[in-house]
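User: what does the whole thing look like in 3D?
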Amino acid sequence: MHEMVVILRRELKSYFLSPIAYVFGGLFLAAMMYFGTDRLFTPRGPARLDSFFGNFPFLFLLFLPALTMRLWAEERKQGTLELLMTFPVTVAQLIAGKFVAALSFLAVLLLLTFGLPVTIGMFGELDWGPVLCAYLAALLMSGAYIAVGMFCSSLSRDQIIALLVALIVLLALYLLGTPMVLVNLGGYLPEWMAAILGGLSPYAYFSSIARGVFDTRDFIYYLCFCGFFLYANALVLNGRRVRG
Amino acid sequence: MTSFSHPMRGAAQGYVLVVILRVVLILLVLGQVVFLAGRYRARVDLTSDQLYSFTGSTQRVLDGMDDRLLIECYFSPDDKLPSIYRELRQNLRGILDEYVQKGKGKVAVQYFDPQSDALLTEKAERLGLRPTRLSSAGTDALSVQTIWQGVRLRYRDAQRTIPMLSFLQWPFQYEAMFTRLIKELTAKSKPKIGVLAFSTDAGTGGMFMQQRGQPQGFTRFKEMLKGRYDLSDLDLNEGKLVPDDVSTVLLIRPKNLTDRQKYALDQFLMRGGSLVVFADSPEVDLSGQRSFMTRGVLYDAQDAKLKFVDQLAHYGVRVEDKMVLEMVEQLHEPIYLAVPGNLGQQVEALPYYYWFHPIANDWADERWVTIAAQDGDGRIDSDKANAYRNTFKPGINTSVAILDAVAKRGRGAGPGLFWPCPVALSEKLPEGVNGEVWFRSSPFAMVEEAQPNLDPFGPDPNPTTKVRNYNRFRSRIQSKFNSEPRRQVSLAVALRGTFGSFFTGKEIPPRKPPEPKKEEVKDPLAEPISTSPTTQPDGTESAPATQPDVQGPPQPGQDTKVDDKDKDPAPILQGKPARLIVIGDSDFLRDDLLSNAHAQAGGPIADERGIVFFALLLDDLQEDKDLLELSSKAATERMLNFVESKPGVEEPAEVLTQRENRKAVYLRTANIVVPVVLLVLCGLVVLLGRRAQKRAFLSATNA
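Assistant: Here's the predicted 3D structure for the full assembly of 947 residues, as structure tokens:
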């Protein structure tokens, strides 16, 4: 655990001491707030944040690969991965440290958006249950996206390739959760297969929690999803170690 | 030739195999975990209105079923739906799945696509299901699709259909619809409600003969609620009392009540029944061209010795023979007038003070108190303000469960009342009786004697004259209002407890014996006595029309005295706990208002909030927890209000809108800019700090 905290601290430092993280964070926040508040501040409109949180899956899909692309690719390019591997830390601790650091950075960005529900709550009777659930869902979904991004970053030395692969994988997962694609898939694939593919997408589970219902099914799905991609990440890193 | 493989390459190949095996295994394990998590799951609905949870009533209704319920869904395929409806369809399927799960094997759902087969289309049509046409904007054109979404519920031999199920936003709306139907299907008997309704008098106005003299009754609401209740007309003629199996009596627009009828109602209350009175004073002529002439409603029959108003007062209710005018225009149900405009004839919605909705607004709020306590010069009378703080109450008493539901479902507004009369609790309620006011006007209301004519436009068809008349009508009311003190008027009250009989110490009105049948004296020789059976028009045979005169003593079993059932039971003077609800309007239940018969003429139109209130009231009176719980569930209307009206300042709507828009833009900009600026500032601080550190380090190393 101590080793993981050391890695976590190192990663967090690299986020908060680098100007790129602030530029990324600023852009990400601006996009979230600009697109999310488009229909929110309607005089005498409903005091709800659905439209704000509704944009999250797509915005996360666009921005998070940019955050995760450097996690392994940069280490490999700079040759620091080999150095890291010689430290008395396991691959699992390395992965967990990097994963939690990226998630914490994102949690800080999400925290900076909290002024929005407070503003809406000041001018309307806001139902806080769904708002808190939506933040939890956002955190879980960003965890899932980060896990995918990290895995993709581990596959290549080139950050751009890592970014593109992560974008494609996340876009495919996002689309699998949209009703239109699901219905169209139903026309080509057997119903059970379309259902399984639809069940893979984090989007549907995000919507389920963000509406204000905490379901153990959704929570376990995210744990399994993150667990799978982090495990795959570990397999890739171990493979590199084996291959030298 | 001997080939040598690199030892590391072999290890890598072995590793790849292991990886593939591990990935497959972990996928299988995780897939199982997610599958099981879907089956055995716990969920917490954190929405304050429990929007995504079934009510306990659904489970109770399903548990109470003895047989299997089949839900047949005649749905067009999801891919034929416009994209915006697909998610809603999935929600609907989710709800139906939940019924299957909760039914524990007693509920089955079957899906049919009526568009796939001509026979299925025919069957769906035969069942009374109807498709609808939905339009959606595509990338290059607007397309219109025919969509089926009808449902048939079958339970034993009974069935109910929903011809076209609307696409609804919230799951509880589907739940309310389905569970209600299931309850109707599976109920062993329906509660019996007696209706004693008096039609409006026939009008005299009107251009067309068929429009004249059409009395308007109260039958439409019975049709609307017949699935849930046995709403049957109450016969209190010939001195009959309310039958024992009737638990609720609706007395709608009482008129010409005889003393005996009053006695029957009194005894019904003493028996522990629930009596709802929809009082009206006066009656306004809406027939023909809606002359809006008023006629006083005479509650009592000409030969009555007792007054119905006194009877109500005895129970603790005061009904005034006056009319309530609401001055807050936002609460009005408008009256429409066609006026010539730049683009031809335009329909304008104008405030009409006699039609309004009570709203769940806390009128004791400082804003309203301040406005009410202001004089003409804008000065606030602090004594008045203090008094108002204590006396002003919310327009809808939301502490009562059904009224809370009424307010939620009506987006804060109660039923639309048309020419209501004041109904209040007596200053001193009878012992053992508790009362509460259900609806109140705003504090900006007044009460006046009924004017003979309440038409704001006048009979002249010229639009200019109509506008002039309307302005005159408005200024008359406005000037009267300005000269009166502010007061809230109570519009509906509810009492509960043990009422004392109004007839204590009074002579019990005798039961009028049935009029003896006047038999026509016929010449026995004129017609031969027929003893042979006669043939009816439908081909069946009946007994001979005339029986031969039988002489001699009565046969065993033959009735020789007055039947016991014709005897009047002893009067009950102190009864069981009962309920009495008096509402100062009956018009919102009138057939012509519910059917929008006056829509073309500009109103009045009773919107669904009236019937929602009425249905909830019946559920409450039957103490049907299931129906009440289902009906009470509603999403709280949460609206943004960026600017408050300035107290005491009449602000034009456009100015208010401009202020609202400005504030909205300001708030949005602040919400976009502030977090970004905060983050960038943090970054700058960190950057400058690091630079300073670097400089310090360099200077230290140089030194």
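In plain terms: Residues 2-243 of chain A form one domain. Residues 40 and 49 of chain A are 7 Å apart (CA to CA).
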